[in-house]
Design goal:
Helices cover about 65% and strands about 0% of the residues. It is mostly helical. A two-stranded antiparallel sheet has the order 1-2.
């Protein structure tokens, strides 16, 4: 290679280094405003395609960082054990096959389904190579903080002001009203299309921010301010799941960061027992004591039977109900990627999709007083129907192996100042798994998927930093 060619290649590489990192920042801002723009433009889905093109452009500029075919992990390894790669390869292979399942009536559905399951996985590389030194961590904290504060303040404005006085762009695009007993109550979306997407944003950003605050040595007042800000946003959004997950996150962090693990574990168990006693007595709210004014707080503690029923919806009913409503062949082989989830909206709605032979599970009243209405939304239902039993098994293996590997790498950093950040990042994929089990839409939410895989990559980057003293990006520079 001639000297001019080497110089050109070097300039291209250096430009790509700065460009893809800038692109990640632009993408995060885009995630925060894209739904607002969609509402201003009558709900157009074109902007969702723009999101994917933006992600693709970031991927391209990222791989331009490695010109001349240089192996990406030649000097850094992969960061993951071989069982994760085997399970991941098997799952991706099954998804690719299911994208071309002959049962799919419109080929576009299969391609969009392929995007749902595979497209955002490379974001793990972006997270792994994003940070180049410890000096960049404060910048990440400030960026996420200033990205979040305006969104939460807007949510407060939406909760306080009469919705009839708000612009249409500040209302939810779907599911903006939640019925409870004899009254209806408004869900708060901030700039997002729904309160669910707002909640997913909070779940991904808050653990990361809190872990960064711990690493940077922020005072207790700052950390409490973060907690109060984000938990208030979760409460006013109307998402009980996010409220509970953020509280569980703090319990997990309390245990993991404990200098005396046994003593704090016993304390957590005793506290949990006390909370359950109070929940079963003083906080045992029912529909007659819950009003529109106090719903956001009291509903978190009410209806214990409702929480039990939801566990059945998402972990038990998909198996029993799908066996009744789908053939053994459909459940084993799957009906194809994109045939059950939100992707069917591309066909003009679920009603039209049914005319093409596509369907979703339908819940019913059970003999024991429970019902199976939630089975239609369960993530397990979607996985079983779209990719079949082999695909579902591969997904379970992949995620189990991945979480176990992340746990071991997180505990490897136990005695390093970066451990609080690594522990906080570990909760992001765990929390997303809970949301995905509850609602299959979490499986196709590009913002959530990017955030989860990016957090996984950042966690692996921290492990590498503790192990070698340098970040992967610094080693490959």
């Amino acid at each position: 290679m001639t000297a001019p060619a080497i110089a050109t290649s070097t300039r291209t590489s250096v430009a790509a280094v700065s460009l893809w990192r800038t692109g990640v920042g632009v993408l995060l801002v885009w995630f925060a405003i894209v739904d607002l723009l969609r509402k201003l433009l009558s709900g157009t889905t074109i902007l969702l395609a723009v999101t994917d093109f933006l992600v693709l452009a970031i991927y391209v500029t990222f791989f331009l960082r490695y010109p001349g075919g240089r192996p990406l992990h030649r000097r850094t390894g992969t960061g993951l054990p071989w069982p994760v790669w085997v399970a991941g390869g098997l799952f991706v292979g099954i998804v690719i096959i299911q994208a071309f399942n002959p049962f799919i009536p419109v080929r576009l559905l299969g391609l969009v389904g392929l995007r749902t399951y595979v497209f955002y996985i490379p974001a793990v590389l972006l997270g792994r190579f994003f940070v180049r030194s410890d000096n960049e961590i404060p910048d990440l904290f400030r960026f996420l903080l200033w990205l979040s504060i305006p969104l939460i303040l807007l949510a407060w404005v939406q909760a306080i002001i009469d919705p009839s006085k708000l612009a249409q762009a500040l209302l939810s695009m779907d599911s903006n009203i939640h019925s409870f007993g004899t009254f209806e109550f408004r869900l708060i979306p901030s700039t997002f299309a729904s309160s669910k997407r707002f909640g997913r944003f909070l779940l991904i950003v808050y653990p990361t921010l809190y872990g960064l605050a711990l690493y940077l040595g922020k005072s207790r007042s700052v950390r409490f301010g973060l907690f109060a800000t984000f938990i208030s946003a979760a409460l006013i959004s109307g998402s009980r799941d996010i409220v509970m997950l953020l509280l569980i996150f703090h319990v997990v962090m309390y245990v993991l960061l404990a200098p005396n693990l046994f003593r704090k574990t016993v304390l957590v168990l005793l506290t949990t027992s006390a909370v359950l006693v109070v929940w079963n007595t003083f906080l045992n709210y029912d529909q007659t004591t819950i009003t529109e004014e106090n719903y956001r707080l009291r509903s978190v503690f009410s209806n214990r039977s409702d929480w039990i029923q939801r566990v059945r919806w998402y972990l038990v009913d998909p198996v029993t109900t799908l066996r009744e409503q789908y053939t053994a062949s459909e459940l084993f082989w799957g009906t194809g990627a994109g045939t059950y989830g939100a992707e069917t909206g591309l066909l003009g709605g679920l009603d039209y999709a049914r005319t093409l032979g596509l369907s979703r599970a339908v819940g019913s009243e059970a003999e024991d007083g429970m019902n199976t209405y939630g089975v239609a939304d369960a993530g397990m239902s979607r996985l079983l129907v779209e990719v079949g039993i082999p695909g579902f098994a591969a997904f379970v293996c992949l995620y189990s192996f991945l979480l176990f590997a992340l746990w071991r790498r997180t505990m490897f950093t136990k005695h390093d100042p970066l451990f609080p950040l690594a522990a906080a990042l570990l909760f992001v994929p765990i929390g997303w798994l809970v949301l995905a089990a509850k609602a299959h839409t979490a499986l196709s939410d590009g913002m959530a998927l990017f955030g989860v895989w990016f957090a996984i990559g950042l966690s692996l980057s921290i492990w590498f930093r503790v192990k070698t003293g340098r970040y992967p990006a610094a080693v490959t520079t």
